[in-house]
Amino acid sequence: MKRKYSGTNETQIIATNIEVAFVIESVDRDYNLNRFERFICHGTDGGITPAILLNKTDLISKEELDSSWFK
């Protein structure tokens, strides 16, 4: 897995020999689908299988949890 330095075409190796990357995000605060998309793209570009984990679902209302947005 690598990333580009800002403003240049050079890259920095972040990690190697990773098969699965767990992307964990809390659903009660600062939930951001664009962030998920960015992490998934970084992983798949490096040949890594992403796994999304949503935590702290006990801290949101039953109505929000039952909404189609989380299904």
Attribute tags:
two-stranded antiparallel ribbon, two-stranded parallel sheet, 25% helix, 71 residues, alpha+beta
Describe the structure.
The chain is α+β, with helices and mostly antiparallel strands and 71 residues long. The protein is 25% helix and 28% strand. Strand 1 and strand 2 (11-13) form a beta hairpin. The radius of gyration is 15 Å and the shape is elongated. The two termini are 30 Å apart. The model has no long low-confidence stretch (mean pLDDT 80).
In whole angstroms, the N-to-C terminal distance is 30 Å
Per the principal axes of the C-alpha atoms, what is the gross shape?
A: elongated
The tally of helices reads 2
Strand order of the largest sheet: 1-2
As a whole number of angstroms, the C-alpha radius of gyration is: 15 Å
Low-pLDDT residue intervals, each spanning 5 or more residues: none
Largest sheet: 2 strands, antiparallel
Question: What is the subunit arrangement here?
Answer: single chain
Helical residues, percent:
25-40%
What is the mean predicted local confidence, pLDDT? 80
Structure summarized in a few sentences:
Helix content is 25%, strand content 28%. By secondary structure, it is α+β, with helices and mostly antiparallel strands.
